[in-house]
Specification:
about 375 residues; alpha/beta; TIM Barrel; Lyase, Ornithine Decarboxylase, Chain A, domain 1; 2 domains; 8-stranded parallel beta sheet; 6-stranded antiparallel beta barrel; 12 helices; binds pyridoxal-5'-phosphate
């Protein structure tokens, strides 16, 4: 028998979450963001649940090729654009739309030999300071692009750094929206600004919804502004379950310790379970004693350090647990129980995004 750990992908949850993005922005089109192998869910599997999207946004050319291999003929957007000049050949061949965020990418386009006009998304650095033209350089970049025969249509985009929270005590997107509006109000073209956080929190504000929203984490049921809100608040469903089983139990006496480094010492007799899941499966090693976990659908806590292949759980709330009992690391448990990936992430000092992207290749993945 294989090791009992597995990841389940819930395609109906993906479809449901995409629909939530549509409800939030009914007059916009929705990019399903599927970078990083669809946030660890597997591009081909995620495509099954997200095929009602208006387009797919990603980074890697080989992922774009995989989408075309799935017979997706609709829009595909490269969120970082070309990494070198010859990437544009594949953009022409596969009809990929691409971001243009720097002068060098315009140079490559100007030298690119193609009969097919490209659709580009000109990116503004409105304050995040990763990619894009500063507001004062945006118009000249637009003018340069507009003069190129290789360019068919120019859309405008920017990315928001604080759509999930306040920034310095004020509305998290106001400063970027002001820079954006001032530099783009008289330019033509479709626009895209909102990530998941903005799609959930800022749709009432003029101009944020625009023509396209970019739904990443919310498509997978992750909550961009946890713990201020949870998945139930936003009506999102987990698209991934990581589950395993108990492979041993131990009866500890007061004063016994659990695992490497003896970081947890019991002060009373305690029954614990050993779970076939460790950091080599992608479970975060930084999840300390007390991280929530379900055993047979009952909520309990981890104990001691996470090791490479195993972790320990407190069986006090679930005295009937035994070898073979189902353990839910995150996602959907038996009998309709749920454990949010964001809750586990928080206990490990990280975010749900990182956990879903980090499920290790050794974990078998199944479509539920
Ligand atoms: C990853 C990404 C998104 C999606 O962000 P979420 O927070 O997952 O919704 C949107 N836009 C760009 C440019 C991105 O790189």
């Amino acid at each position: 028998m294989p090791r009992p750990i597995e990841a389940l992908i819930h395609t109906e949850a993906l479809a449901h979450n995409l629909e939530r993005a549509r409800q939030q922005a009914p007059d916009a089109r929705v990019w399903a963001v599927v970078k990083a192998n669809a946030y660890g869910h597997g591009l081909e599997r995620a495509f099954e649940g997200l095929r009602a999207a208006d387009g797919f946004a990603l980074l890697d050319l080989d992922e774009a090729q995989r989408l075309r291999d799935l017979d997706w003929r609709g829009p595909v957007l490269l969120l970082e654009g070309a990494f070198e000049a010859r990437d544009l050949e594949l953009c022409s061949r596969l009809n990929l739309w691409h971001v243009v965020h720097c002068e060098q990418q315009i140079d490559w386009l100007a030298a690119h030999k193609t009969h097919q006009g490209h659709r580009v998304f000109l990116k503004m650095n409105s304050g995040m300071n990763r990619l894009g033209f500063r507001p004062q350089a945006f118009r000249s970049a637009w003018t340069r692009l507009n003069a190129l025969p290789q360019v068919d249509e120019i859309s405008l985009m920017t990315h928001l750094s604080d759509a999930d929270a306040d920034r310095f005590g004020h509305n998290g997107i106001a400063h970027q929206m002001a820079a954006w509006a001032a530099a783009t109000h008289d330019l033509p073209g479709e626009r895209s600004l909102a990530n998941s956080a903005a799609t959930l929190r800022h749709m009432a504000e003029a101009g944020v919804r625009a023509d396209w929203v970019r739904a990443g984490i919310m498509s997978y049921g992750g909550v961009p502004d946890y713990p201020e809100h949870d998945a139930a608040h936003w009506g999102l469903q987990p698209a991934m379950t990581l589950r395993s089983k108990l492979i041993a139990t131990q009866d500890l006496q007061a004063g016994d310790s659990v695992g490497y480094g003896s970081s947890h010492v019991t002060n009373a007799p305690l029954r614990i379970g050993i779970v076939a899941c460790g950091y080599a499966d992608g479970y975060p090693r930084h999840a300390g004693t007390g991280t929530p976990i379900l055993v047979d659908g009952v909520r309990t806590r981890t104990l001691g350090r996470v090791s490479m292949d195993m972790l320990a759980v407190d069986l006090t709330p679930v005295p009937t647990a035994q070898i073979g009992s189902e353990v839910t690391l995150w996602g959907c448990g038996p009998g309709g129980t749920l454990l949010g990936i964001d809750e586990v992430a928080r206990a490990a000092g990280t975010i749900g995004y990182e956990l879903m992207c980090a499920v290790a290749p050794r974990v078998p993945v199944r479509v539920a």
